[in-house]
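User: what does the whole thing look like in 3D?
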Amino acid sequence: MECRYLDDVYELFLLGLLKPKETSAVKEHLERGCPYCVDHLREATQSVYFLLSGSKGRKPPAQVKNQILHSLRRP
Amino acid sequence: MAQEPTFRELLDGVAQHDESALVELYDLTAPGLFGLITEIVTDREAAQDILKEVFARLWRDAKRIQAGGSVRVWLALEARAKAVDWQRAQSGMRTTAHSRLQWLMKVNSWMPQPADIDQVEKRRHLLEKLVRRLPKPQSELLEMAVVKGFPETEISRKAEQPPGRIEHELRAGLRFLRHRLRAVMGTWSADI
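Assistant: Here's the predicted 3D structure for the full assembly of 267 residues, as structure tokens:
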């Protein structure tokens, strides 16, 4: 499948909402380092980041940070 | 006056296993990530566990993320992938989000760089204003697909639309956003 047919799919690929045939095509292009697909996926990732980081923040309970630090110190 | 460390400097610190860098990065990003995780996972304890796993992986994989791109992007994608997989596992569905992200991490240059994300953040207000012009049904579909991480079948049921229609509307909504992002970021050119 040529890149020009993939213009609208990079966000859906990243989100796991793409049909298997198109998913395989994107993967194949990325595996061989297709610059068009890599650039378009990077741009799509900015869009997805914009949407994901716009959700309302919620402070996690204080103990979560301590539990993370504690787990890192375990051998 | 001393400048605040950048996200890149904090990631560099985490890669050197500097706990104070991890704490600072956590303080800056955990509320946003926890907000995102709790949009997808309704079980509060599970949401906390996912947040812990995200930071534990950051500690382990910081060097690989350094080579890839923006830590803010990685954190958002990692949190979403783990939350989506947890939620789908509860319904006995296949979990593929995290393995897809792991696969992508082996591809070179696909992740936005810190400077790209700085630009998105600088222009967020304008982008949000433009995105509010999206037709409401498309905006709701994007919310369900991207932020809530619903599978297509569930979106179709909730929106009372066939899956083909959902895919068409999602593509249209994402195209709208992509074109506004290009305009706002100044990357619009004749061939796109």
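In plain terms: Chain B touches chain A through 59 residues (CB under 8 Å). Chain B has two domains: 1-107, 123-192.
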